[in-house]
Amino acid sequence: MILELVILNVRAGESPAFEAAFDEARAIISSIPGFDHLELQRCLETPDRYALLVGWDTLEAHTEGFRGSPEFEQWKALLHHFYEPFPTVEHYEPLFQVARPA
After folding, report:
1. Phi and psi dihedrals of 80, rounded to 5?
2. Are 94 and 5 in contact (CB under 8 A)?
3. Going from the N-terminus, what domains does the chain have, and what CATH number goes with each?
4. Which residue, 30, 19, 37, is CA-closest to 78?
5. Alpha carbon distance 8, 46 (integer Å)
6. Where is 75: in which H helix or E strand?
7. Rounded CA separation 39/10 (Å)
8. pLDDT (tens digit per residue) in 50-99
9. CA 4 to CA 92: how far, in whole Å?
């Protein structure tokens, strides 16, 4: 499992429109082969900042499968105009995981 991590800084005052667009866009990304899960979290200290976490089966499922698809063009059209500055996308692989005891 690969985790894509992106900090999204949305232009001031555009968060409601961004969230509405993201609600539509999540159906696009979730249809891609190799997609596992997605979380979008809003920052408490900076309300126009979000953390996007996407789980992929492989790095290539994201970098080649999704980014090389026609669906990615739809994703970009819906979301990329909201960001200032444009975000950096990073990918992580698991090393340690600790969960709350049952």
Report:
1. -65, -20
2. no
3. 11-91 (3.30.70.100)
4. 19
5. 11
6. helix 70-79
7. 16
8. 999 999 999 999 999 999 999 999 999 999 999 999 999 999 999 999 99
9. 6
